[in-house]
Amino acid sequence: MDTKRQIVTKESQCFTMEREQTTQPETSSDKEKPQLEAHPMYTQGPRETFTPEYIIPETQTRTPREDFFIFRRSLVYQAIQDIQSRLSPEEDGNLQSTWILTQISHWGTECELLALLCDRTLMLCYYDFVGLCSSRLFRVPFNYIDTVTWGPLSYPQTALNKRDGQGLKVQWDKLREPPSLLSRWNPWAKDLPYIILTKHPGSPGQSDLEDMCKLEEFKERLVEAVGLAHQDNPIPGRANGLLTLQKPVNVETSVGLVSLVNSKTQLGYAKPRWNFGF
User: PROSITE patterns from the xrefs (predicted)?
Assistant: First the structure.
């Protein structure tokens, strides 16, 4: 019996020692728990100090570009087909090339247009890209064009709005009397025997549309076509021939307040404005 009591006593002592070891608090010498690596987006306490990171979309990081309707491929080719259906085979002939340019009026206002070089005429079309219809269409026979001036745009010193770049002035019917004072002061005058063209301010992303915006190449094609027209179809009773000048192209605007407003708002160009298109 004494031996059995000693064995039970030793077992109870061992059980008590093991229980004390399991209940002892961990010390600094104990093995530390493995720490998870910090996430690049989340902090150690995401519920307490986490703030969502704003990611700028890629479309907003690019340089903003004005979205002109005339540089939408489907619209411009639809406009060309519409204008081509109105050409006269007897007066115009076949369409040779189309150009996207800007006209500068005698008031200094700007307006985009489509210039079409045909076999015998220069067609100038002010196309409505919102209503998808031709608002104004002018025909200038090649053998009527007598003077082409190429050079930098020039404005009076008092002009508020001055545009840089090259200009092309196309004149016809040089025997006509100079425009009257009423025509000069009328911003919608249509009896002026000239037109001033310059490069479109937009920059299309398509290569074929970029080629249509080259003003100098348009000038070379126009001079060549006019020269051939004077040889093949001269006007009786006139001294036929084309005069090509290299000098500044004068824009005859005095103060140009209307031109300044027109240029800042780009009212002469069809584009989306404040969720509207005009």
Answer: HSAC2 (PS51791)
